[in-house]
Amino acid sequence: MRLFAANIFIMTAVSDIKIVKATSSKLKDLSLENIPFGKYFTDHMLEADYIDGEWKNVTIKPYQSLTIDPSLASLHYGQAIFEGIKAYKNPSGQPYIFRPNDNFKRFNVSAERMQMPTVPEEIFMEGMHQLIALDSAWIPTMADHSLYIRPFMFSTDHLIGVRPSDTYKFMIILSPTGPYYNVPMKIYVEEKYTRAAPGGVGFSKNAGNYGGSMYATALARKSGYDQVLWTDAFEHKTLQEVGTMNVFFIIGNTAVTPSLEDGTILAGVTRDSAITILKDMGLKIEERKITIDELIEHHKSGNLKEVFGTGTAATISLIKELRYKDYVMQFNLDEWKVATGLKTTIDNIRYGKVADNYGWMYKI
Ligand SMILES: *Cc1c(COP(=O)(O)O)cnc(C)c1O
Question: Is the full-model pTM beyond 0.90?
Answer without folding.
Answer: yes
